[in-house]
Design a protein that fits this description.
Layout (H helix, E strand, L loop, with lengths): L2 H11 L2 H15 L5 E2 L17 E5 L2 E8 L5 H13 L1 H4 L6 E8 L6 H8 L5 E4 L1 H10 L2 H8 L8 E2 L1 H10 L14 H13 L2 E6 L5 H16 L2 E5 L7 H9 L5 E5 L8 H9 L4 E8 L3 H8 L5 E5 L5 H12 L4 H11 L3 H10 L11 H12 L5 H12 L3 E2 L5 H8 L4 H13 L3 E5 L5 E5 L2 H14 L5 H8 L6 H13 L2 H18 L4 H11 L4 H14 L20 H9 L6 H14 L4 H8 L15 H17 L2 H16 L1 E2 L2 E3 L2 E3 L4 E2 L4 H14 L8 H11 L9 H11 L6 H4 L5 H16 L13 H12 L16 H15 L5 H18 L1 H14 L8 H11 L1 H11 L6 H14 L3 H10 L9 H10 L3 H12 L15 H11 L4 H13 L8 H9 L3 H10 L3 H11 L8 H15 L4 H5 L14 H13 L4 H11 L4 H14 L25 H17 L7 H26 L4
Parallel strand pairs: 3-4, 4-5, 7-10, 7-11, 8-9, 9-10
Antiparallel strand pairs: 1-2, 2-3, 6-8, 12-14, 13-14, 15-18, 16-17
Helix pairs in contact: 1-6, 6-7, 9-10, 11-12, 14-15, 15-16, 16-17, 17-21, 18-21, 21-23, 22-24, 25-27, 26-27, 26-28, 27-28, 28-30, 28-31, 30-31, 30-32, 31-32, 32-34, 34-36, 36-37, 37-38, 37-39, 38-39, 39-40, 39-41, 41-42, 41-43, 42-43, 46-48, 47-49, 54-56, 56-57, 57-58
């Protein structure tokens, strides 16, 4: 029975009270209701009581009424009574005009339409919802509600109810009871629920045992209750049906919040994220340990808007109270001792309270000891030999019982046999300590499920029981794709971390490095990057040797124009890490400067080391900025000694990161984590650092880096609006007051940029109640005027404005050179050009004759950057005549040197009126090989001078040299303009055809909808052949994009368009690589095309035409393989039905040519849909013996896909995606 049939059957049998409970929750979700009152239900039960209505909700003083009935006798009478009762003010005791909507829910299937009409006719506010609609919504949108109220299974068990999750955790031997009260977390709870409301996803991370799961569970539950949302937990235990369940439950669900506990351990997390990203009605809460936050955020942030919240451990005194009140630990000294050792890990403290007796409490010295007593009791049914086997599985993070697997090979060498291993694994699986999976080849794979147990076993195996050497383990796994030793170290440090454990790791790392440094370079680099803080001396020696042996290089060239960063420099990773260890900071800084000065690494790697990732100390509590100040000092000292450009650019990178006041990296116990967008609050210490940055950068003034340095200075002390906010001003003033002696070095020119900065600085001081700092007398009046003119036309409010009409003529002349200077600066170009246009217009208004000379001089002053003062030219043309204007300017300026200016002048002349001399001059200008006018302009001339358009176009096609602007000749695309081409070129289409293909060469997208091409083909049908010849010479990507644009002609009623497309299809089908090219000519991404009968008529005709060409049919099926499923079913069914003999069997593309998945997300759901498509094709085939071979081929393909799915699950189980 299908899922929806199960729901319908439950609704058919449901009794009144349960239906009322279900309907209450269903309507709350469907209509997003708040403040619902279940007036017809007994509180806390599934029993009904008398009341009208059965449920109501109030919003904005408007009522939502609902009435429910599960009656199957005389449904008409019941619905009519419910409707009238809801409108009866004597029963509801409210004004019926306040009712916004009345919903009547019932369980009678196939309601007679006459009853529906009669009830709806009572009042327009009435709606009726029957069991069919409820079942549809429960199946697609509210699956959790169907599970919780009707008991309909949720897929195959990957998602469970929060109650089931709590029950299992409470009964688990390695987990903490989640049913206890949540204490001392009110503030955290408030922040988390607020974050859930505001974001698609929330990640709660923190150290092991801090209570992440418990608070996440409670936050999701509260949110669910407040919003009437469903709430499910993604089972942390592995399920090979997880991908099917994600698709089934989450794709269309609404009003659902999901908790993903220990999210880093979920094998199908990418798939989960991609589905959630496509459903706006889902929210998701993750938890993970702090050590996994970096990799988890990297996955989440690419798909979902999220916020991550670090959950701090409970204070010792609060843990003390929890142990006493909740777990009955009376002995105060023992509680205090456990609390101190647990170091905020509430789970450890609880485990100790549960498992330790009076006799063994004195043996507790460190976190490992707390775990040991608990874990020993949990593993008491396993022999020492079995426990050792479990330890090995834990340190390798899984096991495949197959030859070549490192964990399996290790166990065999230790004397275990396959049967013994399988028996132990079976016992572990029964306790849910591990999960197992069989490969398609029946090989057994095992993965650990209990992180707490795994952490303990790793530490016990290496650091305590001496069952194996961690150094040997590092060496033996160092060259694996995912080196197991990295996770093992994190487990030991995170959960069992103590001085004795850290000392052990340091000793073992030294031994391992003595071997690794002589071996594989990649493995050695990976090890040093991760563990340099455990062996700092050896790491620094490695760096020194690398620098000494490297060649000197200049990394400064074009350094400031790039922004790419890369973290793959082992040397810089080591130095950045060790700068944060106080004992080794100076040595690391010294080597860092040497590394920069010599240029031993790549530019992108220096950007990473000096940028936001690593400029600031890794210590999140960093407040004095000691290391940051040291970095600046050593770089400045080295620059004074060497004048190195490498040092200069890295100094700029570093200061820019400091001035942004954002850090993106913190560290804990030698393991690095990334924290995005950590912004430092502005403090006196940060002000000192910013001031020091500008003192350091002042050393680069007068060098090639001066403009970048000055730009940074201006940017730091700029603000929006006429004046800065008080808080912002105070911060900027605090920095400025420390560098007042240096400000004249940064502001030393009579420019609008320096004047603008000076005005900002003075306003900063004024906002802080101080006198202006800078004297503005050094700036000329022209600079003031230029800045005012620019700001008058700026899109950003500057507060300092000057309109050209307010300036004297002399000041107008003086302002132009300043505006010309600014027009050459990218950041001021738009404002300056606008100001120039308006200044020249004002000059033309006042002195037209003088304006001619000024415009000519202005054009000469611009060099290659030509600004055309169109407004001034139009005004002058209206006063002295366009022809005279052009004549006078042509005396002062070379026409060929200023094409844009004279194009504007020619347009003015055309609008004024033409004679033969002007027409000849327009033709003569074409000899420069440039574009000047478009067809729209020529149409105006054509009205008075018939034949001129063809004459001009012929001349242009013969003379044009620069094809990049030819597309502009075709002008606008309105229907009238395009149809005019026929009139102008019907007698001789060659010139316009030539120009069309030159325009395509210069800018292939100009005729995006191919309307010009269609018109030209109509004039000259042979253009189809030229188009195919032209397209055959294109690069594949350009050709593919062009053919996709033509593919829209499949459904065009215009026969010319279809013939053009058909010519392209026939051409491709005659090529050897037809299957790769033909798909470009099908509208595979246009679903609307496949609902058009025109498409299918033409498609079937194409198939029939090529039915004897097996290769062509294969190419057609390949082309259709990227279409939606329904289209593929129809297309393939048609081809196979047509081929009764079966000649195409094995020669059609039954599957998508490219899966709509990825190696990160996986392909399982897509492959399952492939199976559904093939089954649907089989059902479409005609009955009869002739098609048995077709069905056999489809069945074999389905079987092959099912094997692929099993292999996919195997890879996901091993974390290979």
């Amino acid at each position: 029975m299908s899922r929806i049939n199960q729901i319908e059957e439950e609704l058919r049998q449901i009794e009144g009270g349960r239906f009322q409970t279900l309907a209450n929750q269903y309507l709350c979700r469907r209509y997003s209701l708040g403040n619902c009152v279940h007036y017809g239900s007994n509180f806390g039960t599934d029993k009904t009581t008398t009341g009208v209505p059965d449920m109501y909700s109030v919003e904005d003083n408007k009522f939502f009424f609902a009435a429910f009935t599960s009656s199957t006798s005389d449904i008409r009478k019941k619905l009519l009574a419910d409707a009238h009762n809801c409108l009866d003010e004597s029963k509801t005791h409210i004004d019926s005009s306040l009712i916004d909507r009345i919903v009547l829910c019932h369980t009678t299937p196939r309601l007679d339409p006459s009853i529906t009409a009669e009830v709806l006719n009572i009042d327009s506010r009435i709606e009726i919802i029957g069991p069919e609609a409820i079942a549809e919504d429960l199946d697609k949108k509210y699956a959790p509600l169907a599970f919780l109220t009707l008991g309909i299974p949720l897929g195959k068990g990957s998602f469970i109810s929060p109650e089931a999750f709590v029950k299992r955790n409470s009964q688990g031997r390695f987990t903490t009871d989640q049913s206890k009260p949540l204490l001392y977390r009110d503030d955290d709870m408030s922040d988390i629920i607020k974050s859930i409301n505001q974001n698609k996803a929330v990640l709660i991370y923190g150290q092991s045992g801090c209570g992440k799961t418990r608070i996440a569970l409670e936050a999701c539950r509260k949110f669910s209750e407040e919003k009437s949302w469903g709430f499910l937990v993604l089972d942390s235990k592995y399920s090979d049906s997880i991908d099917e369940d994600i698709e089934l439950i989450l794709t269309e669900s609404e009003s659902l919040i999901i908790l993903v506990d220990d999210a880093n351990n979920q094998v199908s997390l990418d798939h989960l994220l991609s589905v959630c990203a496509g459903n706006d009605n889902l929210k998701i809460v993750f938890t993970c340990r702090k050590m996994y936050r970096n990799e988890l955020v990297a996955m989440i942030e690419t798909r979902l808007k999220h916020v991550d919240i670090e959950l701090a451990p409970l204070a010792p005194e609060k843990i003390n109270i929890v142990l006493e009140n909740e777990y009955g630990t009376i002995n105060r000294s023992f509680r205090e001792r456990v609390t101190a050792i647990a170091n905020g890990n509430l789970r450890l403290a609880i485990m100790a309270a549960i498992s330790l007796t009076e006799g063994n409490r004195e043996a507790v010295r460190e976190p490992y000891d707390l775990l040991k007593f608990y874990m020993d009791s949990a593993l008491d049914k396993y022999t020492n030999r079995e426990r050792l086997l479990i330890e090995v599985v834990a340190i390798y993070d899984g096991l495949d019982i197959v030859e070549g697997d490192p964990c399996y090979e290790k166990l065999l060498k230790m004397g275990y046999n396959k049967i013994e291993i399988e028996e132990t694994i079976s016992k572990l699986a029964e306790q849910e300590i591990v999960t197992t999976l069989l490969s398609p080849d029946k090989e057994l794979s095992v993965r650990m499920e209990e992180q707490n147990l795994q952490d303990f076993l790793i530490c016990h195996h290496f650091a305590k029981a001496n069952h194996g050497s961690y150094a040997d383990f590092i060496v033996s796994t160092s060259e694996m794709p995912r080196a197991s030793y990295l996770k093992a170290a994190k487990s030991m440090v995170e959960v069992c971390g103590s001085e004795s454990v850290n000392s052990y790791i340091r000793k073992e790392c030294e031994e391992a490095w003595n071997i690794l440094e002589r071996g594989n370079r990649r493995a050695a680099n990976q090890f040093l990057t991760a563990f340099n803080q455990f062996i700092p001396v050896k790491a620094l020696a490695y760096v020194a040797k690398h620098i000494e042996g490297s060649s000197r290089a200049d990394i400064s060239e074009e350094a400031l124009g790039e922004s790419v960063t890369s973290d793959d420099s082992v040397v810089l990773s080591i130095l950045v890490s060790l700068m944060n260890l106080e004992e080794y900071s100076d040595m690391a800084l010294d080597l860092f400067v040497q590394c920069v000065e010599k240029g031993t690494e790549q530019l992108s790697q220096y950007r990473w080391a000096c940028g936001a990732n690593n400029a600031f100390s890794c210590n999140i509590k960093n407040g004095e900025f000691k290391i940051e100040n040291k970095k600046l000092d050593v770089l400045v000292d080295e620059y004074h000694k060497t004048g190195s450009c490498n040092i200069a650019v890295c100094l700029i990178f570093l200061t820019e990161a400091y001035l942004a006041s954002r850090a993106e990296r913190v560290s804990l116990d030698g393991t690095t984590y990334t924290i995005s967008a950590l912004s430092y609050n502005f403090t006196p210490e940060l002000a000192n650092l910013h001031a020091k940055c500008f003192r350091a950068l002042s050393n680069l003034l007068g060098t090639e880096y001066e403009e970048r340095v000055k730009s940074n200075f201006r940017q730091r002390f700029s603000f929006y609006g006429e004046k800065p906010g008080a808080k912002h001003a105070k911060g900027m003033n605090e920095v400025l007051s420390k560098i007042e002696d240096f400000i004249p070095l940064y502001i030393d020119e009579d420019s609008t940029s320096d004047l603008s900065c000076s005005l900002c600085i003075n306003k900063i001081y004024e906002a802080c109640g101080q006198n202006p700092l800078l004297n503005l007398k050094k700036f000329s009046q022209a600079t003031f005027d230029a800045l005012g003119c620019e700001n008058a036309f700026s899109s950003v409010e500057k507060g300092y404005k000057t309109l050209p009409k307010d300036l004297s003529y002399e000041r107008l002349e003086g302002v132009l050179p300043k505006l010309v200077e600014d027009s050459l600066l990218l950041e001021k170009q738009w404002d300056a050009n606008q100001a120039i246009e308006n200044v020249l217009l004002e000059i033309a208004n006042r002195k037209p004759n003088a304006a001619l000379k000024i415009i000519a001089e202005f054009m000469k002053s611009l060099g290659d950057a030509h600004v055309v003062p169109n407004a001034a030219l139009s005004y002058l043309a209206s006063t002295i005549g366009a022809k005279n204007l052009r004549k006078e300017l042509s005396k002062a300026l070379d026409i060929n040197a200023y094409p844009a200016l004279f194009d504007s002048l020619d347009l003015l002349v055309i609008n004024e009126g033409l004679d033969n001399q002007v027409l000849d001059e327009l033709l003569a200008r074409l000899e420069d090989g440039r574009y000047h006018f478009d067809l729209t302009t020529l149409e105006k001339i054509e009205l008075e001078h018939p034949g001129y358009t063809l004459l001009y176009t012929t001349k242009f096609s013969e003379s044009v040299k620069d094809f990049s602007n030819v597309w502009r000749f075709f002008g606008s695309k309105n229907e009238k303009h395009i149809s005019a081409l026929t009139n102008s070129f019907s007698s001789n289409p060659s010139p316009i055809v030539d120009l069309y293909f030159r325009a395509m060469e210069g800018f292939s997208h100009f005729d995006y909808d191919l309307s010009f091409l269609r018109c030209i083909v109509q004039i000259n049908p042979s253009v189809k052949n030229r188009f195919i010849e032209y397209s055959s010479k294109l690069d594949f990507d350009v050709w593919h994009e062009l053919m996709q644009r033509i593919s829209v002609f499949w459904t065009e009623s215009d026969g010319i368009a279809w013939q053009l497309l058909k010519s392209c299809i026939d051409d491709v089908l005659n090529k050897p690589l037809k299957r790769f090219e033909l798909s470009s000519l099908f509208p595979i991404h246009n679903a609307a095309a496949f609902s058009d009968d025109v498409f299918w008529c033409r498609f079937e005709s194409l198939v029939v035409e090529n039915r004897t060409g097996i290769e062509n049919l294969y190419a057609i099926s390949w082309a259709m393989s990227e279409c939606n499923d329904q289209t593929r079913i129809r297309a393939l069914s048609y081809i196979l039905t047509l081929d009764e003999e079966g000649s195409t069997i094995g020669h059609l593309s039954l599957r998508r040519s490219s899966m709509s998945g990825s190696f990160e997300v996986g392909f399982i759901p897509t492959k399952q849909r492939e199976i559904d498509v093939l089954k649907a094709i089989e059902q479409q085939l005609p009955a009869g013996v002739s098609y048995l071979k077709h069905r056999e081929w489809l069945a074999k393909t389905i079987e092959y896909i099912e094997t692929e799915i099993k292999k996919e699950k195997w890879d996901l189980f091993h974390g290979r995606h």
